[in-house]
Specification:
The structure is a single chain. By secondary structure, the protein is mainly alpha-helical. It has two domains: 1-122, no CATH class; 123-201, Winged helix-like DNA-binding domain superfamily/Winged helix DNA-binding domain (Arc Repressor Mutant, subunit A). Helices cover 67% and strands 0% of the residues. Helix 2 (26-34) packs across helix 3 (38-56), helix 8 crosses helix 10 (180-197) and helix 9 crosses helix 10 (180-197). The longest helix is centred in the middle third of the chain and has 20 residues, at 89-108. The model is unreliable at 9-20, 111-118 and 127-133 (pLDDT under 50).
Length: 201
Amino acid sequence: MGRQNPAKGRGTTAANTIALKENYTEITFWAAFKSGDREVFSALFCNYYPLLVQYGIKICSDSSALEDCIQDLFIELWQSPAHTQVSSVKAYLLKSLKYKLYKLFRQQQPVQSTDTAFDTMAFEISHENFLVDREEVQFKANEIINAVNKLPNRQKEIVYLKIYKGFSYEEISEVMGINYQVARNLFYQSLKSLRQLLPHK
């Protein structure tokens, strides 16, 4: 049910995408897109689409609705690129997708505040986030995942962004809509809670 996206069908190859990633920093990459470079826009879509899907599916299990939200996001970017100033492209895109998914969630739920909606929506981390071969390591990874999924949603989200995706506190602040110090405090509180949930040998 996906919608037509300006990035699709332009013949951007994986080689072109990799070359663009090597030749541009994240911000100059964004600046080139804002200047109207269509090839860069196609590469932008190819580069960040997997990250958006990986993040979005932890909030929204409806893959069709998620696909629509991602494509809507890129269509809006295509229509008005010059109006968007960012310091981190991946943080900006995740934040934008998150608000689209929350808007969809609120349309399907009784009226509630944005903060309540944020806390109500599930955020689930799957076993696919750990790719390990050794059986004993996999067992330990499973224990960690099970413990993480017992955390409150906001704590699960910050653990995912910080540990699994390597986001900086500045980027986390933008994605989660909190300030830098709150992000640090939330992360350390999440680690403290996680240690308490892990089985003690």
